[in-house]
Amino acid sequence: MTTSSSATTTLSKSTGGKQRVSYFYQPDVGHFYYGPSHPMKPHRIKMAHHLILTYGLYRQMECYRSHPATPDEMSAFHSEDYIQFLGKVTPDNLRGYGNQMQKFNVGEYTDCPVFDGLYEFTQLYTGASLDGAVKLNRGDCDIAINWSGGLHHAKKSEASGFCYINDIVLAILELLKVHARVLYIDIDVHHGDGVEEAFYCTDRVMTFSLHKYGDFFPGTGHIKDTGAKEGTGFSVNAPLTSGMTDEAYERIFKPVMDKIMEVFQPGAIVLQCGADSLTGDRLGCFNLSLKGHAECVRYTKSFNVPTLVLGGGGYTIRNVARCWAYETSVCLDVDLPNEIPYNDYFEYYAPDFQLHLTPEQRENMNTEASLESVRVDLLTQLMSLKGAPSVQMAEVPPDFEIIKEDAVAEKERRSTKEDRSGEGMNDGGAEDDTRSDRGKTKDGRGEKREHEAELAG
Fold it and tell me: Which residues of 7-20 are buried (b: 16+ CB within 10 A; e: fewer)?
């Protein structure tokens, strides 16, 4: 089959019609535990799921138990030795993996601990994102939701920022089998460095990240980091500072999104909805309400492009659950009452037991002038692009789930991986990170910033 993309197509906003929503969830994904002092709590996923159930949202979408990702699926992006290490290391045997833990940035002295069931956890959240991408590719739904996914910091051979496997990169690679261009949007308070790095040199993926920039993890995402080689201009970074309000966020998000959709014309979108940009987050420093955060979901949805909606950061877990349940309702065009219905975790929402949050009374450190400067710079960057790139795709590769474990399929898979490298999709390695010295280190990971500063604050 031969498909080509045309730069003359115009994407229009939704004028009505119900979008089909698929929801992917694994009951065990909320049972994993990073450790007593660690801010990442997978339990938040189960809390969000219970709100989705008790609000009755599950009745209006197709719900699926996702498959656990296989090593072959994960090695479409990650190195095989890294995958093998994650599959073997446990809290009981980690002393025998000292050198590898240092190599892969995993263990006691990092923000990515070894905990019981670590590998299974990565399989579950990654498999759900891949299942969502496959559903979208087949045209079986318009929006696919996986709140356990969105772990945007993981690199090809390295854990980072609580993330071990980059399910987003893997899902985008799956979408690229069918779609000539994929847009990645990141509304987490932290820069989506792992995804940007993986696609920094290709024009088939555009990344758009709005994030806190400065003395803040991971330290990357400068406005002048715009991509390299064929990908020059296709990394779009909105560096912001503390106190972002709904109105200020919208002033950047909507005009930039309009221009992106006009010039890039993606065939699919991946939207990472990290909830640490909400007001009152344990690690975040923005001041968004649920409605302000969800407006990004609503606006993205309005373009009627197949969309994979993922979770991400979020460390005040009662607010994370509120956020993702509400954003599920936004995907479904359903209004929710503000009173939280009784559920197994009802006491978490005390004292008001209300869905929506009131932003804190605090100063927005983003000035009118600084926001206007970011908006103008990004629109100028996008206007310099010469229309949506056209891609010839000779054959659509098979879905991950139907690749047979025989010699022919294995040979085909390896051939596909080689083709991807040749196309400039890259593997996120040090050689592919051509950012300026300001935004990189000798090993291509960017200017490292630790989470400790946020925890101390």
Answer: eeeeeeeeeeeebe
Asked about 153 being catalytic, the answer comes back as yes
Give how far Cα 186 sits from Cα of 88, 180, 450, Å.
31, 20, 20
Cα–Cα distance between 204 and 179 in angstroms, integer?
9
Distance (Å, rounded) from C-alpha 189 to C-alpha 186? 9
Specify the pLDDT at position 321.
98
Candidates 67, 152, 153, 191; catalytic one: 153
User: Do 287 and 411 form a contact (C-beta atoms < 8 A)?
Assistant: no
pLDDT in tens, 49-76: 999 999 999 999 999 999 999 999 999 9
Q: Which residues pair with 288 in a beta bridge?
A: 278
pLDDT, one tens digit per residue, over 335-380 is 999 999 999 999 999 999 999 999 999 999 999 999 999 999 999 9
Name the strands in the sheet holding 21-24, side by side, starting at the edge strand that comes first in the sequence.
62-64, 21-24, 143-146, 307-310, 268-272, 182-186, 205-212, 235-240
Residue 22: beta bridge partners? 62, 144
Q: Is the pLDDT of residue 320 over 60?
A: yes
Q: How far apart are CA 70 and CA 400, in angstroms?
A: 9
Enumerate residues 6+ apart whose C-beta is below 8 A from 129. Answer: 24, 146, 149, 167, 168, 170, 171, 308, 310
**Two tokens, residue 337:** 């009452």
CA distance 226 to 312: 23
Higher pLDDT, 180 or 408: 180
* Percent of the chain clearing pLDDT 70 (strictly above): 82
